[in-house]
Amino acid sequence: MTKKVKIKTKKKELNVKKGTLDQKHTECLTKFDEMNNSLPIKREKLVKLQIELNELMKMKPNKYTNDDIRQKAHLMDLIDKLKQEIISIENCTEQLKYIVNTLPILIDYYDNLEIVDDCEEEIAHEVNEMGKKTILSYFVNSNKPITQENKQQFNTNLKISRAKLYENYLEITDSTHRKKSKRKHNLCSQQDCDGEIVFSQLDGCQVCNKCGIFETVLIATDKPNYKEPTQDSGTYAYKRINHLTEILSQLQAKESTDIPAKVFETIQREIKKRNIDKNELDIFKLRKILKKLDYRKYYEHVPHILQIINSKEPPNFSRQDESKIKKMFRDIQKPFAIYCPKDRKNFLNYSYVLHKFCELLDLDEYISYFPLLKNNTKLRQHDKIWNNICKYMRWKFYKSI
Length: 401
Fold this sequence. Notes:
The chain is an all-alpha fold and 401 residues long. 56% of the residues lie in helices and 3% in strands. A hairpin with a 4-residue loop joins strand 1 and strand 2.
């Protein structure tokens, strides 16, 4: 008994983009003009945003609300983005990139249009003078008059050429454009046979449509069998960088969180009870207080709590340093996967990794915020993995113990 298998075919998405290359080129030039005209407006907007940010910066840190912190971060991002846009417009970055990428296509396209505008006699004359085969010589013969059939064939080929140029142009200028799939036909390997190898789903073989030679094939499928264990496509690297970003935000008190007023009141009472000067209160002392009060769930918000209690500015990485840390973190994912022991499932301790990053970047003022592991056995295990990572990355290795 044969079993029929229903094969699901992929639906092709129709490309609905219309127009000509000339129209698209004109649209791009218009867009560049609009960008240049928007420069004064962007400069004016930048000044307003900077004034608004300066007003927020004048406030005392202990007066900041969660909305103020969010607004401050939002304004800084807007200002940074706007500055980049202004610099890009002033340097004509987009225009230069467009010209470099599309100039060869535009030259071929407009040369193509000029050929169409030329009269038939001029085309024939040019082909005869060239004295060698070109695309035109297939359709124009100097010894024979140009027939209506040749003229139609010539125009068809020019249209195909323009369509190909338009397709290439869209691939460069339009990120949403999907490249047309080109089917590569397999040709028969037999001598004196220019047939095409066609796959027969019914017979499970490849057959030449001319000489009839066939070959049995096995079909591989991406669909898993219910008996086979499914592969975990996990997004470990993605989750790790997100967790790192969260830790950096918490340390710099950039995260938005709502801590009940009761928690602050309890902490204030404990500080008075211990006769601790608020100005001498630091992250480590505050953690001990939270531990005693059974507020361990607020450990990650210690910088934020400390900022509100004693009005001290939290640690603050520069944008450049923070970008370096994140890049280094992404870079170590590959060597970690290579040198990670088979029996280890988790990533390295984040505090350990950030401690090592600060050592490499000479950010000594931040090292104390990232304590190393207390367990010497685990610390040695981390050092062993980290030493291999440093060798792979060609970084200097600093021994922990």
